[in-house]
Specification:
The complex is a heterodimer of chains A (534) and B (313).
Chain A (H helix, E strand, L loop, with lengths): L2 H17 L15 E5 L15 H10 L4 E3 L5 E3 L2 E6 L5 E6 L13 H11 L4 H8 L1 E6 L4 E6 L6 H6 L11 H4 L16 E3 L9 E6 L23 E5 L4 H9 L5 E2 L7 H5 L4 E5 L5 E7 L9 H10 L2 H8 L7 E2 L26 H11 L5 E7 L3 H16 L3 E7 L1 H7 L13 E7 L27 H12 L3 H18 L3 E6 L2 E5 L2 E2 L13 E2 L2
Parallel strand pairs in A: 1-10, 1-11, 15-16, 15-17
Antiparallel strand pairs in A: 2-3, 4-5, 5-7, 6-7, 8-9, 9-10, 11-19, 12-19, 13-17, 13-18, 14-18, 20-21
Chain B lengths: L1 H28 L4 H6 L5 H11 L5 H13 L13 H36 L4 H15 L2 H15 L15 H35 L2 H8 L4 H12 L1 H25 L5 H11 L2 H29 L6
Helix pairs in contact in B: 1-13, 5-6, 5-8, 5-11, 5-13, 6-8, 7-8, 7-11, 8-10, 8-11, 11-12, 11-13, 12-13
The chains are: A alpha+beta (534), B mainly alpha (313).
């Protein structure tokens, strides 16, 4: 019996007890209803959303720092800290005015110079920021409330860049903090968002506390994701880091915590049986599973080998290994963009549709001249998502006659090894597995994984002129129709060259106690509008 | 005795130095890169390299080691790569939960295991002895996390008596402090109770066959006096040794227990630091643990002289 089996069994028994009419314990019921206890997806190990770009940091940062614009549930950027914006007729000069009443948590007003410093730091790290920086003439404060961004070329996606929710977001910090080198950590966590970070109570790896910022002035519009009025209905939010899923499930069941961001799929059935717990899909934008092949070295420097793998790949195998048999949680994905979003396309996706053809894959492999070189498949065993995918891929490669060198390791090592450009036999790699948040794959803006600009591309370093041409077309598109056309061609080009291998689209759950209300579905946990009764 | 203690403490310094060098080398030989972890999954290779440079991880090994030793000699354990907080502050923050867990576990272990072992020896061969030893074998065979989950199910989910996770500092009150520690201490202590009960029984059996015990019985001394005053004191040296080893092993056991019960102690800090390759934190913790091991050994040696006057240093 392994550890996972034991914890599943115990969690199940615990639920049976709970549903059998036992009253919930009073341990946390005496706590103020105005404190929300939340179990995040991971430990908040650092708190600089520009320096470290993990999703958990972004999620916490969205409480403390505000953005000029915020993406709403329709994926449109809406004004947030900004009152108005103007763009010159030639599209080269953007002038923004801040709304009144904005204050930082240290009591100082938010000024244009703070915005300029923050955007300067952000644009040194963010892909869209880097594009802006490359065409920047000047970014200056005109007065306390107004700042101007003058460009050498038009950038139609400006508002999306300032309001996107992919990391790193363009969070606004006081000038003195924002002047920190973007590759070094900020020393203070002062923002102008709806919650203050209680640094004194921070126990990295265990607890992070946020307190309501009394001077925050929310917008009047209804909140929608990162846009609209961020009304805080609780005074205090405690992030309780619980690394063990069974313990987190038990803590939610007996009321020690109120909301668990990412329950593992194995435990969801038992949580659903508990009459005090609500379980729902966390984010309709879900995730896209993937494995990346190293385009620099044999065998995957040969597009025929990459196509052979894609021809044999059965996404259903991946999704069942990863999520299980609940077909409401996954679907096959003959493309790279998030299902259900405006730019979703299956153009050129035939290779991933229909019955898998191992014979065809073997034929393609033979034509490629594959000479039995070992494929170094680096798999992080400490991440259930990567482990499940790695196991399926290893079997797939063996089935089509490839020589697999399966390297079972941890995520820290994968992170280090995937950056090596040396050949697989000299410390490099052949392939690794990961996944991408669906919210980052709605368009090419923050979608590093789809880029194919060689040395500047994401790990695997694919080079594809047609892919890059269509990425540029999307950035230059003036309306949705033009964007759709560009992305269709981009999807086809990326599949033709096999920039990476999508393994399917999957959703995950979130769970909370029924005395908590107002939880919205989205790519990150939104705490505004969430309330708790005793 | 004082000079002996002083010499022992002095002798810890080279030991700790060797351990530090070993750990420092091991970390740099092992694969993994904190910069890659920090940068996040969407970062570019260039981002990772810039972060590495910012952290000084691109400097030669010897310079990094020299700089670390120099800082240690000046009382500075360094700064966490991830949290940007001083390592010493992080350790202090995590010390209380771990020490509390160890203390409660140790007290519980001694209070339960020693009487169990004594009774088993006294009733050797009887159903009482066999029951105690069967329990010991059972408890010794169960992994800590299994015991932890079972206890949590019974006492937290079923009876709702105790919380399933977290830690409340002692300054918040003795009962709130204890509430969070009872289940983890029981889980962690189960193995040690079994181990020490078996050692106590074996040691007591040997002593109970000695002539002076027979003499004591012949003189008409009561069973309790014979067992707990005459026999137990003479059987104490191996028991103290095992308790000492147990304290050292508790540090390892705390890693699992703290994860299961979400206690923000040094065990969890160690795991988190290793997974993230947070070198300064790992090095600080290893130094502390090395010191604790040496200290425990010293305390065991000193305790020998208290329970057995024949031992002199």
């Amino acid at each position: 019996m392994d550890r996972r089996t034991v914890l599943k069994g115990l969690a199940g028994v615990g639920t049976l007890a709970a549903t059998g009419g036992l009253s919930m314990p009073a341990l946390s019921q005496g706590a103020a209803a105005r404190t929300l206890k939340f179990v995040p997806q991971a430990n908040l190990a650092n708190f600089d959303p520009i320096w470290g770009t993990q999703y958990v940091v972004r999620n916490a940062a969205a409480l403390v720092w505000d953005t000029l614009y915020g993406l709403d549930a329709t994926l449109q950027p809406q004004r947030q800290m900004v009152e108005s914006e103007q763009v010159s007729d030639d599209g080269l000069v953007w002038t923004f005015k801040l709304r009144s009443g904005l204050k930082f948590h240290d009591g100082t007003p938010v000024l244009a110079k703070d915005v300029v410093a923050s955007l300067t730091r952000w644009s040194s790290r963010d892909p869209m920021g880097l594009m802006l920086k490359a065409i920047q003439n000047e970014l200056t404060a005109v007065d306390d409330k107004t700042f101007k961004w003058a460009l050498k070329a038009p950038y139609p996606k400006m508002l999306l860049a300032l309001g996107k929710n992919s990391t790193p977001c363009a969070f606004i910090m006081p000038e003195r903090i924002a002047q920190t080198d973007p590759f070094k950590q900020i020393p203070e966590y002062i923002g102008s968002g709806p919650m203050k970070f209680a640094k004194g109570e921070w126990v990295p790896g265990a607890k992070a506390v946020f307190e309501k910022f009394a001077d925050y002035v929310p917008r009047q519009e209804k909140s929608s994701w990162l846009a609209g009025g961020k009304q805080m209905l609780v005074d205090r939010i405690e992030w309780v880091v619980i690394p063990d899923p069974a313990t987190a499930a038990a803590a939610l069941q007996n009321g020690e915590v109120d909301w668990w961001e990412s329950p593992i799929t194995d435990l969801v059935p038992s949580l659903k049986k508990n009459k005090n717990i609500e379980v729902d899909i966390a984010d309709p934008l879900g995730n896209i599973g993937s494995f990346r092949m190293n385009h620099l070295h044999p065998p995957f420097n040969n597009v025929k080998v990459r196509r052979a793998v894609l021809a044999a790949l059965n996404q259903e195998d991946y999704m069942r290994a990863l999520v299980g048999d609940d077909t409401a949680l996954w679907k096959t994905l003959p493309g790279f963009f998030t299902p259900g979003t405006p730019l979703y396309t299956e153009e050129g996706g035939e290779i991933l549709k229909g019955k898998r053809d191992l014979a065809m894959a073997k034929k393609l492999l033979a034509e490629s001249g594959y000479a039995g070189q070992p494929v170094t498949c680096v798999v992080a065993q400490d991440q259930p998502i990567t482990k499940a995918q790695g196991d399926v891929t290893a079997d797939l490669l063996k089935q089509i006659g490839m020589n697999v060198d399966f390297v079972a390791t941890d995520w820290g090592t994968v992170g280090s090894r995937r950056a090596q450009k040396t050949p697989p036999g000299q410390g490099g790699w052949g392939m690794f597995h990961t996944w991408h948040a669906g919210a980052d794959c709605i368009n090419p803006a923050a979608y590093n994984a789809i880029r194919a600009n060689g040395d500047k591309a994401w790990f695997g370093w694919p080079t594809s002129e047609p892919v890059e041409k269509e990425v540029l077309s999307w950035f230059e598109a003036k309306n949705l129709e033009e964007e759709k056309t560009a992305v269709k061609r981009l999807n086809k080009a990326a599949l033709d060259d096999v920039v990476y291998a999508p393994t399917g689209f999957f959703l995950s759950y979130t769970a909370w106690r029924k005395n908590v209300s107002g939880i919205a579905k989205g790519p990150l946990p939104f705490f505004w509008g969430v309330s708790k009764s005793a | 005795m004082l000079s002996y203690i002083f010499r022992r403490i002095l002798s810890t310094l080279p030991v700790m130095g060797i351990v530090a060098l070993f750990v420092f080398s091991l970390l740099y030989i092992a694969p993994g890169d904190p910069a890659a972890v920090i940068a996040g999954d969407q970062a570019s290779p260039a981002d990772v390299e810039r972060i590495r440079q910012g952290l000084g991880l691109d400097r030669p090994f010897l310079i990094q080691f020299g700089s670390w030793v120099w800082n240690i000699l000046h009382g500075d354990l360094g700064t966490s790569i991830f949290t940007n907080l001083p390592v010493s502050a992080m350790i202090v923050q995590r010390l209380e939960p771990t020490l509390s867990l160890m203390a409660i576990t140790l007290v519980l272990t001694i209070l339960v295991a020693v009487p169990l072992g004594v009774v088993a020896a006294w009733k050797a061969g009887s159903w009482v002895d066999r029951s105690i030893m069967a329990f010991a074998v059972f408890a010794f065979s169960l992994p800590v996390f299994v015991v932890g989950y079972v206890l949590a199910y019974i006492f937290a989910l079923q009876f709702e008596w105790l919380p399933v996770q977290g830690y409340t500092p002692l300054k918040s009150g003795v009962w709130p402090w204890l509430q969070n520690l009872i289940l983890p201490a029981l889980a962690l202590g189960s193995v040690y109770i079994a181990l020490i009960a078996r050692i106590t029984r074996a040691s007591m059996l040997e002593v109970l066959q000695q002539d002076y015990v027979r003499t004591a019985r012949a003189k008409g001394l009561g069973q309790r006096d014979i067992l707990f005053i005459h026999a137990l004191k003479n059987a104490a040296v191996p028991i103290v040794t095992v308790i000492g080893i147990g304290i050292a092993l508790l540090i390892g056991g705390a890693v699992v227990t703290e994860s299961v019960f979400a206690i923000p102690g040094l065990g969890r800090l160690t795991i988190d630091a290793i997974l993230r390759r947070d070198y300064p934190v790992i090095q600080g913790i290893v130094l502390l643990f090395s010191f604790l091991y040496v200290l425990v050994n010293l305390m065991v040696d000193v305790t020998y002289t208290l329970v057995d006057p024949r031992i002199r240093y």
